[in-house]
């Protein structure tokens, strides 16, 4: 009898083919490099075409910070694909929705408020990591739970999105409630790359927004050859009075010289290192992976 599987089951079967190596040279190199750092470091690497995979603390929970804006954009664009939202629909941003104590290019450009299209809010949120834009999108969707439920329905494991940017600014511990694992992040990137989640048009739009982001120049792409195409999303927390930075993250898809791709997620958490060192940790790991793929 011919068995017919649902799209979600097929997706899960596809992900089950991924085998995370434990003794590969790249695995050992990353493990040795991260040992002794004054931070908790999680890494996952996944070949888009060859399914080669390694991870270090790949199943551990890490706070996402603005990495979750990628997840939110996926959920929003899925609604666009269904016709429930439109990229050209107008969104009014009032002055009283522009708090001062948060990162927001929207507020800096329009301090008295403005009207933007959904596409513009998405671009500010993804490409420029705008926190106010992020919360506008979450309100439009009906809250963090709606985004989380969308991901779970599509087979995403090891994920929790429960707080918006405003809530994360209210107390240090709240940011840890939005978490993922490095493996979950790279597997979601692969689902996105394989067009399992969005239409061709929406996939291309989000890809462009991630490639054009000016954030994180010293992270995954920091030591890669100039001109390397990296579609990525960063996340960064504040540093508390004890000198601990909760999150310095970067996840993305790197295009190799031969046209193939790999996904990489690096999460640096509870770090006593300074920002320059945290970003170098990410860029060093990014270089290790690039060298592995271009030399083998």
List the uncertain runs: 1-16
Taking the sheet with the most strands, its summary is:
6 strands, mixed
Walk across the major sheet and give the strand order. Answer: 1-3-2-11-10-9
The tally of domains stands at 1
Total of helices: 11
Question: What fold name goes in the CATH topology slot?
Answer: Beta-lactamase
User: What amount of the residues lies in strands?
Assistant: 15-25%
Query: CATH architecture, please?
Result: 3-Layer(aba) Sandwich
Structure class: alpha+beta
Write up this protein.
This protein is of the alpha+beta class. It has a single domain (17-295), classed as 3-Layer(aba) Sandwich (Beta-lactamase), CATH 3.40.710. 40% of the residues lie in helices and 20% in strands. It is built from eleven helices and eleven strands. It has helices at residues 7-15, 25-34, 68-82, 105-109, 118-127, 131-141, 144-153, 165-168, 182-193, 200-211, 275-295; strands at residues 19-21, 40-47, 52-56, 62-63, 90-93, 114-117, 159-160, 179-180, 230-236, 245-255, 261-271. The protein has a six-stranded mixed β-sheet with strand order 1-3-2-11-10-9, with helices on both faces. Strands 4-8-7 form a three-stranded antiparallel β-sheet. The longest helix is centred in the C-terminal third of the chain and has 21 residues, at 275-295. The chain is globular. Residues 1-16 have low confidence and may be disordered.
């Amino acid at each position: 009898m011919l068995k017919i599987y649902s799209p979600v089951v097929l997706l899960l079967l596809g992900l089950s083919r991924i085998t995370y190596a434990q003794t590969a040279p790249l695995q050992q190199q990353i493990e040795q490099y991260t040992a002794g750092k004054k931070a908790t470091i999680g890494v996952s690497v996944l070949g888009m075409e060859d399914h080669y995979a390694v991870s270090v603390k790949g199943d551990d929970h890490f706070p996402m910070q603005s990495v979750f804006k990628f997840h939110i954009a996926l959920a929003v664009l899925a609604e666009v694909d269904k016709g429930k939202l439109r990229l050209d629909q107008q969104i009014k941003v009032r002055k009283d929705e522009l708090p001062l104590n948060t990162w927001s290019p929207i507020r800096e450009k329009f301090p008295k408020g403005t009207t933007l299209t959904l596409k513009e809010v998405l671009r500010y949120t993804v490409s420029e990591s705008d926190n106010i834009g992020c919360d506008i999108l979450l309100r439009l969707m009906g809250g963090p739970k709606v985004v989380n439920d969308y991901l779970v329905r599509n087979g995403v494991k090891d994920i929790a999105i429960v707080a918006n940017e405003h809530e994360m600014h209210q107390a240090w511990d709240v940011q840890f409630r939005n978490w993922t694992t490095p493996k979950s992040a790279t597997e979601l990137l692969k689902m996105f790359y394989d067009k399992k989640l969005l239409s061709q048009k929406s996939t291309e739009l989000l890809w462009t927004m991630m490639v054009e982001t000016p954030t994180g120049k010293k992270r995954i792409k920091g030591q890669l050859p100039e001109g390397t195409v990296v579609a990525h999303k960063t996340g960064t927390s504040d540093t508390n009075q004890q000198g601990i930075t909760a999150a310095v993250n970067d996840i993305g898809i790197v295009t190799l010289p031969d046209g193939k791709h790999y996904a990489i997620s690096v999460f640096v958490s509870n770090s006593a290192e300074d920002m320059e060192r945290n970003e170098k940790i990410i860029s060093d790991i990014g270089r290790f992976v690039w060298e592995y793929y271009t030399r083998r």
